[in-house]
Amino acid sequence: MTAASWPLEAPAIGTFVKLPTPEVVEILALAGVDFLVIDNEHAVINPQTISTMIGTARGYGITPFVRVPSHEPRDVQAFLDAGAAGLLLPHVDSTEQARRAVASCRFPPLGTRGVSNSGRAGGWGRTDLPDYLLEGNASITLVAQLESRTALENACAIANTKGIDAVMIGPADLAVSSGLPLGDPELTSLTEETERTCVQGGHTLGTTAPDGPGAAKRFARGYRFVVVATEVALLARAAREMITAARGPLE
Fold it and tell me: Is the pTM of this model over 0.90?
């Protein structure tokens, strides 16, 4: 799931990772996810652990993304150097914000990302600098998260921004920022219009879903990738179901 493979040939399924445990990456990989999103926006995971998780994902052949806390160079540089296949960029509301985010993540002339081939992305120094620069710009996937009314209204313009590979609707933040509950008809209508315009425009569109059936419904509406729940939610749900089933005959 790199920039070179987009638009995706088949729908891709991933999940958010919030626990600072590389073994979780192995479990998800063996479960069959296509990609995972290591959450550095809402979860407390230190950079060293994220680097190990990225390496583990790459070793298992699944695509590691990092959701970063901001678009600033200090918040994107280390994860790209550590070998992340791409970044989820939160709260991109305009083309200007999209361009600034691209500048932080792409090497010149596309952006202003700092250069060092000494990390995993540069083969620990073994990749020649010209190849490192070329690969860094060609293979990094940047996903702009649309989490406000303004962002949805600008969805196609953001998706058309040079250096942005995909856009992703964030339902929870969209609802909160709009002051409307999830499932509100007005919010549903706005989301569906964004879906139509993005799909018709040939843009790679993603979103989140609470479970597998929810993801299947979104794929049917034209989404190309869906982040299903979190590993925390999956663990909690399985634990509740197991405990309920075990206690059922006794109650």
Answer: yes
Architecture of the domain made up of 3-250: Alpha-Beta Barrel (3.20)
Please write the tens of the pLDDT for every residue from 82-133: 999 999 999 999 999 999 999 999 999 999 999 999 999 999 999 999 999 9
Q: Which of 42, 71, 91, 203 is catalytic?
A: 42
203 classed as catalytic: no
CA 40, chain centre distance (Å): 11
